[in-house]
Amino acid sequence: xxxVNVKRIGPCTWADISRANIxxxxxxxxxxxxxxxxxxxxxxxxxxxxxxxNAIKKLERTELILNGAFGVSDVVLP
Length: 78
What we know:
Largest sheet: 2 strands, antiparallel
Structural class: mainly alpha
Helix content: over 70%
Oligomer: single chain
Order of helices and strands: EEH
Shape: rod-shaped
Radius of gyration: 30 Å
Distance between the termini: 76 Å
Strand order of the largest sheet: 1-2
């Protein structure tokens, strides 16, 4: 095994290069995680919008069913 303090490449040691590589990997992983969270957030927002639209459609259908069942044209759901 090489002594990291003996081998030098210019002004920095192998330990410095190794440390920089590790830090770089952490930064890349952090960016990837942040982008994954952003994508998941967008998908979740889209799902919530779709759920709200579906709920409104169900309420409208229920209102139509109630109107037809009772023969009343102005049944309004709260």
